[in-house]
Amino acid sequence: MKAYSTDLRERVVRAVEEGRSREEIVQLFGVSRATIKHYAKQYREAGDLGPKPIPGRPAVKEASLRSGLWSQLEANRDATLEEHCHIWEAIHGQQVRAATMGRAIKHLGWTRKKRP
Predict the structure, then answer these.
(1) Average pLDDT over residues 25-42
(2) Which residues contact 70 (CB under 8 A, 6 or more apart)?
(3) Which of 29, 78, 101, 110 is 20 to 30 A from 45 via CA?
(4) Do 65 and 103 belong to one domain?
């Protein structure tokens, strides 16, 4: 799910500061009561309403997959996901699971559909 825009967050907090009721804000902006409470608290404590960064480590394998995968797909059009994983490991020395390979292929927009 994408984060709400900073503009919407600012309008929600401004409505809270104006003294509007929570129910009115819910109806007006289409956000939940918990969201209103969260934005008001975030603004009070940090003074900033920007979305927080996504927790966790950044993906390491997918960046390298995106850079070199297209040529492998072109060369091995009929290979399965598992075969692409073995080919990638043989060429680059990096083990990749089928799910990761599938996400990378989907991100590139590659399909196995044969077009005339």
Answers:
(1) 92
(2) 108, 110
(3) 29
(4) yes
Q: 3, exposed or middle or buried, with CB in 10 Å at 0-12, 13-18, 19+?
A: exposed
Burial class from Cβ neighbours inside 10 Å (0-12, 13-18, 19+) for residue 26 reads middle
Same domain, 65 and 97: yes
pLDDT per residue as tens digits for the range 74-86: 888 888 999 999 9
pLDDT tens digits for range 49-78: 888 887 887 777 777 787 788 888 888 888
Task: Pick the closest to residue 69 from 41, 91, 52 (CA basis).
Answer: 91
d(CA 12, CA 79): 51
* DSSP H or E stretch at residue 32: none
Q: Which two tokens stand for residue 83?
A: 């075969």
